[in-house]
Amino acid sequence: VKLAESGGGSVEAGGSLRLSCAPSTLTIGRYSMAWFRQAPGKEREGIASLDCDGTTSYADSVKGRFTISKDSAENTLFLEINGLKLEDTAIYYCAARYVCGYGLRFSYDYWGQGTQVTVSS
Fold it and tell me: What is the dihedral of CA 97, 101, 104, 106, to 10 degrees?
């Protein structure tokens, strides 16, 4: 299974981005999907999940600014990021888990290579 992220880049604070994740050989609706990020010098954190039944969950740090969604026809996962802050600078990873439920809890099985998001003032 390969997960290919795209859409990262350098953006000024307050701007927006849309990240995409296109998995190979798995159907998004049959897996729990999530976005994680890792900022320089910090541990990786889960920020948004989309479960098999469509339930979403978000980390408190991104609630109200980030939106996770999918396009089933394109089998693509998205992360809409609005109101970017300097502290959103990180590598963003897409992840998939065969077991449904549990949101951002517990480990994920498959990971992408990540896409860099850099926010400047």
Answer: -70
Count CB neighbours of 96 within 10 A: 21
Contact call for residues 95 and 111 (beta carbons, < 8 A): yes
Token pair 């998939």 in the structure block, residue:
96
Phi, psi dihedral angles at 88 (to 5 degrees): -85, -5
Dist. CA 17–CA 72, nearest whole Å: 20
Per-residue pLDDT of the chain (121 residues; tens, 9 = 90+): 899 999 999 999 999 999 999 999 899 989 999 999 999 999 999 999 999 999 999 999 999 999 999 999 999 999 999 999 999 999 999 999 999 988 888 899 999 999 999 999 9
Residue type, 99: V
Q: How far apart are CA 45 and CA 31, in angstroms?
A: 19
Task: Name the token pair of 68.
Answer: 């996770």
